From TrEMBL:
Membrane protein topology class: Multi-pass membrane protein
Protein family according to the UniProt entry: Belongs to the ABC transporter superfamily.
InterPro entries: AAA+_ATPase, ABC1_TM_dom, ABC1_TM_sf, ABC_transporter-like_ATP-bd, ABC_transporter-like_CS, ABC_transporter_sub-D, P-loop_NTPase, Sigma_54_int_dom_ATP-bd_1
Highest classification ranks of the organism: Bacteria, Pseudomonadati, Pseudomonadota, Alphaproteobacteria, Hyphomicrobiales
Highest taxon listed in the record's lineage: Bacteria
Any one GO molecular function term: ATP binding
Keyword hit for Transcription: no
Annotated protein name in UniProt: ATP-binding cassette transporter
PROSITE patterns: ABC_TM1F, ABC_TRANSPORTER_1, ABC_TRANSPORTER_2, SIGMA54_INTERACT_1
Location (main, coarse): membrane
Keywords, ordered alphabetically: ATP-binding, Membrane, Nucleotide-binding, Transmembrane, Transmembrane helix, Transport
Transmembrane parts of this sequence: 77-99, 119-142, 199-221, 233-258, 325-347
Record's compositionally biased regions (Basic and acidic residues): 14-24
Cellular location(s): Cell membrane
Length: 668
């Protein structure tokens, strides 16, 4: 059985001293460069100029991480696949030139009525087509393999940084442009890694095609002499000049009418992510919504969010309409232009039919190469928006990572106790990321085997203190020290139930096969969930099936399996009735008699299970520890009604004068 040494933050988990380094080491198999230095905006810039500079830097920030795929710590397939793709692009251009020459030969043979040449070229055409098809198919496969590997490499690195040291939780506590990180990591990162490969392959292919077939146009077309007002003007390489001017006009037009494409695409992606998040939020909280009858309110919220999505799609459709107008018009006109330009030379006999058709084919290829921006501007804008959204998340993680390495914002330190104390808070102060104090300096030392209750009114900083102890809350000063080689286990108010089998849910955060099935069943039986033993191997949405009380009982079953040295309970029995709560606490004390317990709770009934109580009080400038007392061991009285419901006969016995019947008989 493995130790519960990797602590999933904000869920149940265990964390020993030094677990931070262990977790970082196991979380990522991809080495990434340290975050770049923060760049302060020029104070002389206007807000609009500062925003424009930030948006430009976002693309730079994306490439700082993304280019590492081809670096020393990148993927071993990166360079071989990239070189192979380049070779196939070059070979495909060669086949295009061969087909272009074939067009000239076949039409010249038809013009001469040369049947033998026509039959010969017909036979040659099949190998040319077959070779081109094989190359294009292989090119698609290699290109998509680069995209897939690049996405896997960058996503692995980004997810590792997101999960490390609880940053995925800390992002919820700080400001910044990192909303909906799940959409940025999944959809935006996919587009951000797929599109550049397509673009680079397209640019290389366009450049090689344009270079090759400009020579063809220059050679075939030659010079064009135009008589104007009794004078003659000679235009050398008139087909090349026409192709360049035609592409310049269409590209400039598309750039002007589509200048807002990037911004509209970015806003569209953001509202789409917000709509997905709203739908997910409704699904995850379906029970509460159904019990409260909040369907109408949720529908209004969804309608509002979806209306915003449709509004942004309408704006994007207008951009598509403008660019489509230019690109489709260009596609229809481009094949006709070279034929019209070559017609005078053909009619006067200085150009053959084969040369006309070769020129038309070459002109179309050159125009396609020059018009690459026209055809891909919408995708380029979409990539621009997605890359910036990914970079925004990277920058937020950069800030957290820099804060971990710097003392400028104040960091809570985690170390080892020098005495026999199990847990020690040394001048611990907790603050927000902007420096606002939440909990003032706190000095607490907890010995092995102590059971400490942390009390205080709502908002006094109890849960924040627990997060600081667990390492989730990094800001503040002072230190949290644990006894060396002791394991900490957290039980939050809302236990995390992962997807998959119930057995996996009980064993979490360890693997489902971390314990024999008999041990898992025994743990469930001790917490009163033995009726679930037959369903341990079933895959189901257990997070939705189990009630709040059952989830908390399941968390106690995890606790028994992991057998830690220190337990931190953050309202871990709030969903249980008083009787079930008592049973859980008694069970923990009986099964783990030497365990050290730190509990955060509002219920006064829990005092009987603790040997010490510290109280936090909310004050201006941060909560403060106002009392630290030893609890007097005592037995608890049970109400007459509860005793009667348990055993009606006990009421009759108690009425005979036996005072013992009024005591619950529970021991501390």
């Amino acid at each position: 059985m493995t130790d519960a040494k990797l602590k999933p933050t904000s869920v149940d988990g265990a964390k020993p001293d030094g677990a931070e380094e262990t977790r970082q080491g196991k979380a990522s198999t991809v080495e990434v460069a340290p975050p770049p230095d923060v760049i302060e905006p020029d104070p002389d810039l206007t807000p609009e100029e500062a925003e424009q500079a930030r948006r430009k830097y976002l693309l730079k920030r994306f490439w700082i991480s993304a280019r590492g795929y081809w670096g020393r710590s990148g993927d071993g397939f990166a360079w071989p696949c990239s070189i192979g793709l380049l070779v196939m692009i070059c070979m495909n251009v060669g086949f295009q030139y061969g087909i272009n020459r074939w067009n000239r030969g076949i039409f010249d043979a038809i013009e001469r009525h040369d049947a033998g040449t026509v039959y010969y070229l017909s036979a040659v055409f099949l190998p040319l087509v077959a070779g081109s098809v094989v190359l294009v198919t292989s090119q698609v496969y290699v290109r998509m393999m680069i995209q897939r590997h690049w996405r896997r490499w960058l996503a692995t690195a980004l997810i590792a940084r997101w999960l490390a040291n609880g940053r995925y939780y800390q992002l919820n506590l700080i400001g910044g442009d990192h909303k909906n990180p799940e959409a940025r990591i999944s959809e935006d990162l996919r587009i951000a890694t797929e599109s550049p490969v397509d673009f680079i392959a397209g640019v290389i292919s366009a450049f090689l095609s344009a270079s090759t077939f400009i020579v063809v146009l220059w050679t075939i077309g030659g010079a064009l002499t135009l008589p104007i007002g009794g004078m003659s003007i000679t235009i050398p390489g008139f087909l090349v000049v026409t192709a360049v001017l035609y592409a310049a006009i269409t590209s400039t037009t598309i750039a002007v009418i589509g200048r807002h494409f990037v911004r509209v695409s970015e806003v569209k992606n953001q509202v789409e992510a917000e709509f997905r998040y709203t739908l997910t939020h409704v699904r995850e909280n379906g029970e509460s919504i159904a019990l409260l009858g909040g369907e109408e309110e949720e529908r209004n919220d969804l309608d509002k969010t979806f209306t915003n999505v449709l509004r942004q799609w309408a704006k994007l459709s207008h951009q598509y309409m403008r660019t489509t107008f230019v690109s489709h018009g260009s596609m229809l006109i481009a094949p006709v232009v070279p034929v019209l330009l070559c017609a005078p030379k053909f009619l006067e006999g200085s150009m053959t039919l084969g040369e006309v058709m070769q020129a038309a084919s070459a002109f179309a290829i050159v125009q396609t190469a020059f018009g690459w921006l026209v055809d891909n501007y919408p995708r380029l804008a979409d990539w621009n928006a997605c890359a910036r959204r990914v970079a925004s998340l990277m920058m937020s993680l950069d800030g957290l990572e820099r804060a971990e390495q710097s003392d400028a914002l104040g960091r809570i330190q985690h170390g080892k106790t020098e005495s026999e104390a199990m847990l020690s808070l040394n001048d611990l102060a907790v603050s927000l990321d902007d420096g606002t104090a939440v909990v003032k300096e706190t000095q607490v030392e907890i010995e092995a085997g102590e059971r400490v209750l942390v009390a205080g009114e709502s908002g006094s900083g109890k849960s924040t203190l627990v997060r600081a102890i667990s390492g989730l809350w990094p800001w503040g000063h002072g230190s949290v020290d644990f006894h060396p080689d002791r394991r900490l286990f957290m039980l939050p108010q809302r236990p995390y139930i992962p997807s998959g089998t119930l057995r996996r849910a009980v064993a979490y955060p360890n693997a489902a096969d971390g314990w024999p099935l008999d041990e898992i069943k025994a743990a469930l039986q001790k917490v009163g969930l033995e009726y679930l033993n037959e369903k341990l191997e079933e895959e189901a949405p257990w997070d939705q099936i189990l009630s709040g009380g059952e989830k908390q009982r399941l968390a106690f079953a995890r606790l028994l399996l992991h057998n830690p040295d220190i337990i931190v309970l953050d309202e871990a029995t709030s969903a249980l009735d008083e009787k079930s709560q008592d049973r859980m606490m008694e069970m923990v004390i009986e099964e783990l008699p030497k365990v050290t317990i730190v509990s955060v709770a509002h219920r006064a009934e829990l005092e009987v299970f603790h040997s010490r109580k510290i109280t936090l009080e909310r004050r201006e400038g941060g909560a403060k520890l106002v009392s630290d007392i030893d609890l007097i061991p005592r037995k608890r009285r049970r109400s007459v009604l509860s005793r009667f419901l348990d055993n009606p006969r006990s009421l009759a016995k108690g009425s005979t004068g036996s005072g013992k019947a009024e005591l619950s008989g529970k021991k501390k």
